[in-house]
Amino acid sequence: MTTRDRIAEPWGxxxxxxxxxxxxxxxxxxxGEGLTEEQVDAWVQSASVLHSNGDAMDIAVKGGxxxxxxxxxxxxxxxxxxxxxxxxxxxxxxxxxxxxxxxVRRDGQLVETDWDTAMDLIVRRTRDLVAERGPGSxxxxxxxxxxxxxxxxxxxxxxxxxxxxxxxGNTRLCTATSGEALKQTFGADGQPGSYADxxxxxxxxxxxxxxxxxxxxxxxxxxxRLDGPNPPRLLVVDPRQTPVAARATVHLRPLPGTxxxxxxxxxxxxxxxxxxxxxxxxxxxxxxxALAKTVAGYTPDVAxxxxxxxxADIQAAARLLGxxxxxxxxxxxxxxxxxxxxxxxMQVNNLNxxxxxxxxxxxGILQMNGQPTAQNTRETGANGDLPAFxxxxxxxxxxxxxxxxxxxxxxxxxxxxxxxxxxxxxxxEQGSIRFLWVSGTNPAVSMPxxxxxxxxxxxERLFLVVQDLFLTETAAxxxxxxxxATWGEKTGAFTNADRTVHLSEKAVEPPGEAKxxxxxxxxxxxxxxxxxxxxxxxxxxxDAESGFEAWxxxxxxxPCDYSGLSYDMLRGPSGIPWPVNAEHPxxxxxxxxxxxxxxxxxxxxxxxxxxxxxAPREPAEYAAANPDGKAQLxxxxxxxxxxxxxxxxxxxxxxxxxxxxxxxxxxxxxxPQLRKAAREVWVEMSAADAAREELLxxxxxxxxxxxxxxxxxxxxxxxxxGVIFLPFHYGYWDDPEHAPRAxxxxxxxxxxxxSKQPMFKTAAASVRLLSRDGQPSAAPTNTASAPVDPxxxxxxxxxxxxxxxTEVLA
Amino acid sequence: MTAPGIxxxxxEVHEGEQDLEKQLHAVADRHRTDHEVRHVAIDLARWSxxxxxxxxxxxxxxxxxxxxxxxxxxxxxxLSAVRERSAELVGRRSAPGLLLLRDLRELYLLASGNSVxxxxxxxxxxxxxxxDLLGVVTECHDRTMRQAVWCNATIKVLSPQLLTSL
Lengths: 810, 166
Prior knowledge:
Chain A is of the alpha/beta class. Classes of the chains: A alpha/beta, B mainly alpha.
């Protein structure tokens, strides 16, 4: 047992292991107030809600308050480890500025009221609008941070009760492309791989995935392989010098927005060298000839011209992939939030398919998620899909959902795909949506082009409801604010990026009158008196466990089959990956071990889309192209980003996160250790660019795009020349007078036509020196924002006494 | 080769692509607050330019001068700026929603008209055994059909809201 400053050393101590061996467990423990394990009253089972990794933990309770957390050593995901956000951010629950009563706007001011008054106002506005303008005048924008039962309740009440098509999650900003790329390739959503593939892989390729900061515990697993016997080789595609890139065998730094050209070149090389598993391709895929033709022109030399990556490096990367025996590929926001997002994600799938690297230990694809419960937003239909991966364009799927809900199929809107977030905001801008209910997210900081978003949310004609823990930047603009309970204060299940389902139990009471999101949605449905076709209540469940049972019935027989799960099973030693059913009573480690299960025309979730225009394909077209339901090798040409550097804005601006914060910092900035670790926004630039602009570490810069400007201190980091980086976490709630600093003031309104995910990685920008006082920037020094010059005056990131975490090795 | 019919269709499809390209740019300007329409329309305009450029080598072969204008048919600066500015001003109103549907229908009809011309040209190319031309027609026709499919699909997605909730 040792203690360690886990702000200074975020990944903790190494426990090296060999290929094929079991990852040793290490139990991470942090208790506040100098408490010891023996002094804790109760340990309550849960998992992390601050990233998508799904780290299992127990919540420590003393005197009715949360006092700490401890990793669960028996869990398949984290083997006891916790990430710094898991370790410290629980403190936000006890923050003194939690919302404790509903608020309504009177004479321009938000004032406290009771639940009846607030809900009555919401219900009356709903009814009036539906009567006057139809259900198309309502919009619901939820999150990737609630629990499964809450999303399913919301999806049922909106789609099956209100007949409204305008429901989506902020998962649109983080994980929409992941789902879309899987649908395009495999016919249905569903993570093919498993985190356990890290234990077996001899090659791990990470595309736009700074796993060291986004899923730090998954990186601990990779680090332990890297430090063990026969370590895997890494291919890293990232314009920044991330901690992952530092361990790469080959590191490619493409110009942001050019992923498709790079991936086409990798595919071209794999085909040209005949590193293709022809038997696998023959048995499991369709479309090889067409793909080979599409990528034939993308030689390494051509890609070098487009991506700014040396052709020799592309060849070396292709050789790494081509000679891999067990290839694990992972993808995240560097692909999902960039130009041609879905098409690029599909090309990563194609690389694994051509190499026959699927459905075996170490051979997998992890199209990652951003947020902790984004997976459930996708599964339950609280995003732009129907529940349980049903196909909106397949009348039989809609009829089947109508059977589950006991409503007429016409009650469920399906003339068009469910409306995505960007279009919901467009309809609100244009005035056809007059009611917007935002739950658990903060679009006034997280959406692109904030000036536009504020002007939409601020419209007099838009009735804005916000349900949150704190008075966020978005809540401050609302007509009604509902105080919500959070993690640790309510019970529910959620699922991580490798399909592992965990149960999170209530440990303490929520503050004041704050209520679980589930209770708020149930109350809304009750007040609206939503009925099924026989006059019974549409929503026949009343708490989390009965909601889970309802979801099990909805998911039965679909790819995300929960029918064999129960709360009791989830109270066992480890989370369980779906599908869990009669055939797989203990869950399923990896999908597609014996062929592609849900790509047949009558089973698939999507008939696919045009890879460039995004136009949905017709059912007959899909059936003709893929009659036997195989994986689809689809490709297309590179199309340049819509905003490229110019004389006025010579840099490519890319945005992203840091290890120490989550989303818009509503929780993480209320934990002192995390707040201190990255207390202020910064901007990153390469040493060569800084030298040319005559700029120094810590200079206060104005960073401008064609839309707006923000201010940030400079960190000279290992980022690619010509590219600048801003973290997107920093808004204004903790400093309303602050000069503009939110990265999304600058980003542009443009999205991938397939996944509808906005682009946060390609905007044109300029920099200008505002002032110089010799102080360094506040950027962390032990992450991708590390100073490139070791003599830099940057102050080392440490947590000190208050960040000491106990690590117990097995 | 003297095949006046081929010459005629070549010229027509060349003009049709130029027309579609111009209209795609005009729609992109007029509906700049409908961001997906704007961005995809500009990408699709490039396809029409590619189609026009692909035809150029055949002009001489069939006795015409298509090669005169192979430049992008981008809208003139002043007019475009006026359209963009007015698009921003009316972006908050609902009437442009109906205008958008009308514009998309026009684009669909233009693309469909071009598609018929590509069919005719392809049939002719097959008959005179001009493999080069047939290859180009096949590639171009595919792009044209995808333009039409996108117009139709976008109309399908937007119609329920724009026709019932404005």
